[in-house]
Write a structure and sequence with these properties.
elongated, Ferritin, metal-binding, 5 helices, binds fe (ii) ion, mainly alpha, single chain
């Protein structure tokens, strides 16, 4: 019964879809923060990543729809305006957000397994689990280099131009 979805899994998937949309809003806010400070490389990375996060949210809604489960809703509102001190703080926030999202995905995998919803488990294992590894690694790389730039009295503005071509 691949199409049948349990109520608990449905709730979890709706929550996750909204979490991805919230993440998309957060990266868009980060992008605007960087753009305000004339840091176009960081702004472009965050903007592209915002689009990826939106795609993740839509993938989860599509999974729900494919299984003919009813009741999916958009519940998350756009993120509040961020007040960051400096670029390192933005990237720390981004990494924390990714870590929290990874934990949410792992919890959802556990739930799917306990509900014997192997279709949902496979959906998550096939994309979201490896994707979180990539994203945590990508943001960690950007953050660690940003910290090093600050520590060595380098110019973040010079590092900014490299960020746009970093992986997601
Ligand atoms: Fe995501
Ligand atoms: Fe992410």
């Amino acid at each position: 019964m691949a199409m049948k979805i349990s109520n608990k899994c449905l709730d979890g998937l709706i929550r996750q879809a909204n979490r991805e949309l919230q993440s998309s809003h957060a990266y868009l806010s980060m992008s605007l923060w960087f753009a305000d400070r004339e840091l176009p490389g960081s702004a472009a990375w965050c903007r592209a990543h915002s689009a990826e996060e939106r795609t993740h949210g839509l993938m989860v809604f599509d999974h729900i729809t494919k299984r003919r489960a009813k009741g999916a809703l958009v519940t998350e509102s756009p993120a509040a305006k961020f007040n960051f001190e400096d670029p390192v703080e933005v990237w720390k926030f981004a990494l924390e957000n990714e870590r929290q999202n990874s934990l949410a995905i792992m919890d959802l995998v556990k739930l799917a397994r306990s509900e014997a919803d192997f279709t949902t488990e496979q959906f998550l294992q096939g994309f979201f689990v490896p994707e979180q590894l990539e994203e945590e690694a990508a943001v960690t790389d950007i953050l660690e280099n940003a910290k090093r730039v600050v520590k060595t009295n380098g110019l973040y503005v010079a590092y900014d131009s490299q960020i746009v071509s970093k992986p997601h």
